[in-house]
Design goal:
Blueprint: H1 7-10, H2 14-20, H3 25-45, H4 50-70, H5 79-101, H6 107-113, H7 116-144, H8 148-159, H9 164-171, H10 175-198
Helix pairs in contact: 2-3, 3-4, 4-5, 5-7, 7-10, 8-9, 8-10, 9-10
């Protein structure tokens, strides 16, 4: 039976865990599991064949690991800015190594290597993924602060997009109470997001 992770480990995002301790094997395994499909989809979007995309993904992930291990984090800058720089450095290293190793890359791959738009797209996807991680953590924190019925009201209306009247009937609450719970929890999540973005990591 798996043991529970201590709160200090579960209360920060996966990317922050990887940045804080690049030797954290479990965090890296989860990082690869979560972001390998995203980077592969990015490759396919930019013209890669499926078999080539698998190779590129492996190399880019290895470059990200190396970049995160060696890049100095400046706590005065935002994590998103740091992540963008790390992603760009990893891609630059990847481009340099391919140009040294081969002059026979297919046309689509040479175009990808030279594409600033592709790099910006990859950086943007990594930043968006980090924002989603922060949202997940913020939601977990908010859930612990409220009554289960209020959380259900929030989840069913804000996430499942059900009507207030439908949720009120299911939970035995008034419609007004459903919407009060929803808006209160939304504000809590926004506060947690702001707090997380300023926390040392």
């Amino acid at each position: 039976m798996p043991t529970e992770k201590p709160e200090a480990e579960t209360s920060i995002s996966l990317m922050m865990r990887v940045r804080r301790d690049p030797a954290d094997v479990e965090a890296w395994e989860e990082f690869v599991r979560r972001y390998q499909p995203m980077i592969r989809e990015w490759c396919l979007r930019w013209g890669s064949r499926p078999d080539d995309a698998d190779d590129i993904v492996q190399e880019v992930l290895l470059k990200l690991l190396a970049a995160m291990k060696s890049f100095d984090y400046d706590p005065d800058r935002s994590f998103r800015a740091w992540l963008k720089t790390v992603t760009q450095n990893a891609w630059s290293d990847f481009v340099r190594s391919h140009r040294r190793e081969s002059t026979e890359d297919p046309e689509w791959f040479r175009a990808l290597l030279d594409s600033r738009a592709a790099l910006d797209d990859l950086s943007g996807r990594m930043e968006d993924a980090f924002d989603r991680e922060l949202l997940e953590v913020a939601m977990r924190r908010a859930e612990k602060r409220v009554k289960p019925a209020n959380w259900q009201a929030f989840r069913l209306t804000a996430i499942d997009q059900r009507t207030g009247a439908d949720v009120a009937r299911e939970l035995g609450m008034t419609v007004a109470r459903v919407f009060i719970a929803k808006h209160r929890i939304q504000r809590m999540i926004e506060e947690e997001m702001r707090r997380l973005s300023k926390e040392p990591n």
